[in-house]
């Protein structure tokens, strides 16, 4: 693996010590790392490689990586960063497979349509139409949802977004700038992050106005919407990815603006009927909208 200086982002310190990387490396004890260092320092000492012009630099790199892995805090952050890279690569591969399957399905439908006597349609055009249809569905459902909220807000009590920490949308229902809204997701335990825990994390970037946690049937995946008090706070949160990777369950944070869909709103339900969103009393309709926003976001990222 190419290095950008021993403290650089691209150095795999386990590989420098000829140790396994990834989850296997994270599980190594300090004693195992010390043993590997002693072995490699004997084998790679410059005195034993007089004809190698890179021997001194290599030995210094070995010592630097050993010192790095001896630091518990640095090692924990490094393991989280490696885990984030692996998960990002896995997501990219899965997205590619999903996209290829979608194109293949569209092409198959186009061939079937043409075989039935209809005019041939370009697969790219079919994909564009499908994206447009999904965006229209999201806009329609959002319009219906907000119309229902507006009609019932005068007769409904304000529901806190997470416990007694944050309030919902004010009764006059002002629009929330979508530049202030963040989408957060994680894998490794749907119940790992609570609204209070997310508030503790994101308030370091600015005031948090609202948090909505959407639980899923999957026990391993979770997601949430976070409304910051300003665009600047949301942008600061987006830029500090390293903060989220130090946790045992890393967070994936994106802006609602990336979806290219209609504006999102701060959350408050006007109806007593609840759904599967933790601590908010949200309607089933918003759960559907949230899911479709994510689908549109994934399509646009491709």
Automatic annotation (TrEMBL):
For bias type Basic and acidic residues, the affected ranges are: 162-179
Give the GO cellular component terms, alphabetically: endoplasmic reticulum
Which stretches does the entry tag as region Disordered? 37-57, 152-179, 258-279
Q: Which InterPro entries match?
A: DnaJ_domain, J_dom_sf, Nucleotide-bd_a/b_plait_sf, RBD_domain_sf, RRM_dom
Polar residues composition bias: residue spans: 265-278
Every copy of the J domain together lies at: 12-82
What GO molecular function annotations does the UniProt record carry, in alphabetical order? RNA binding
The family database entries (SUPFAM superfamilies) matched by this protein are listed as:
Chaperone J-domain (SSF46565), RNA-binding domain, RBD (SSF54928)
The record lists the membrane-crossing segments as: none
Q: Which PANTHER family match?
A: DNAJ DOMAIN CONTAINING PROTEIN, EXPRESSED
What's the protein called, per UniProt?
J domain-containing protein
Source species: Aegilops tauschii subsp. strangulata (Goatgrass)
């Amino acid at each position: 693996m190419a290095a950008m200086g021993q403290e650089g982002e691209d150095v795999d310190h386990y590989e420098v010590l000829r140790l396994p990387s990834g989850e296997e490396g994270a599980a190594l004890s300090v004693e195992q790392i010390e043993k590997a260092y002693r072995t490699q320092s004997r084998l790679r000492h410059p005195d034993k490689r007089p004809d190698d012009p890179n021997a001194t630099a290599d030995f210094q790199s070995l010592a630097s990586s050993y010192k790095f892995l001896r630091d518990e805090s640095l090692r924990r952050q490094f393991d989280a960063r490696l885990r984030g890279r692996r998960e990002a690569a896995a997501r990219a591969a899965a997205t590619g497979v999903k996209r290829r399957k979608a194109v293949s399905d569209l092409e198959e439908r186009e061939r079937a349509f043409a075989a039935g006597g209809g005019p041939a349609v370009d697969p790219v055009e079919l994909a564009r139409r499908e994206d447009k249809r999904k965006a229209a569905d999201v806009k329609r459902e959002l319009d219906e949802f907000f119309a229902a909220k507006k009609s019932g807000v005068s007769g409904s009590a304000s529901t806190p977004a997470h416990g007694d920490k944050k309030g919902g949308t004010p009764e006059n229902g002002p629009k929330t700038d979508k530049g202030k809204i963040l989408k957060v997701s994680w894998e490794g335990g749907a119940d790992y992050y609570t609204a209070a825990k997310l508030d503790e994390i994101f308030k370091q970037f600015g005031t948090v106005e609202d948090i909505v946690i959407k639980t899923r049937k999957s026990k391993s995946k979770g997601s949430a919407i976070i409304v910051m008090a300003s665009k600047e706070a949301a942008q600061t949160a987006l830029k500090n990815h390293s903060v989220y990777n130090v946790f045992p369950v890393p967070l994936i944070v994106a802006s609602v603006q990336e979806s290219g869909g209609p504006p999102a709103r701060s959350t408050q339900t006007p109806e007593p009927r609840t759904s599967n969103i933790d601590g908010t009393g949200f309607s089933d309709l918003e759960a559907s909208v949230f899911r479709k926003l994510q689908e549109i976001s994934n399509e646009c990222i491709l």
